[in-house]
Amino acid sequence: MAELPNRQETLSLDTFMRGLWEENPVFVMLLGMCPVLAVTNTTINALAMGLATTFVLVCSSLLVSLLRDWIPKQVRIASYIVIIATFVTMVDYGIQAISLELYAALGAFIQLIVANCVILGRAEAYASKQRLHTTLVNSLGMGAGFTLALLSLGTVREVLGSGTLLGIPVFPADFQPWVVMILPPGGFFVLGAWLLLFNWLRLRKEHKARAQLEVSAHAS
After folding, report:
1. Looking at the whole model, is its pTM more than 0.90?
2. What angle do CA 35, 115, 188 make, to 5 degrees?
3. What does the pLDDT read at residue 54?
4. What number is the average pLDDT over the span 141-150?
5. Is a pLDDT exceeding 80 seen at residue 99?
């Protein structure tokens, strides 16, 4: 994760958009790989894990930002983990109350949100240094980026592996599902394909930016 300066950031659209593109937790920083690969065999599972992680990320970041001047530096990591674990417990009981089937599908990965590097990393690198409103916007962007990444994998794996989307058939009855897509190797295949696409788009954008700079330099 990029090291952020110890100065207050000015709130802007980039504060939110960084989590979707430049600092996407999955496609750029490769964080939180366990849930990304383990629970994205269906779109519903991917969406549920993304929203659960976003809730914990936003709430814990806000509390860390609010208490940043009160938490001693010597125990800051332990304090962050306690804060994160509190919201993970809330999510854990909330999912159990909403759907036991979904809770069983997500399994231990709900509790493992405590150890998600995306959340702890944002608490340490951003929330502990920034004001409440910028922390809110930035954490929402990071959560949206993480959820988008999970949905990208979950949608492809469900459509190709089961022939359905959100449980609704999308192919003719004679379609033969690619069973490998809903198995663990399928997660690696789809993740690799998305990483190739994401990096190609990033390199293309950088190439265009360099070309424009060269044109501007020659014109001047």
Report:
1. no
2. 25
3. 95
4. 94
5. yes
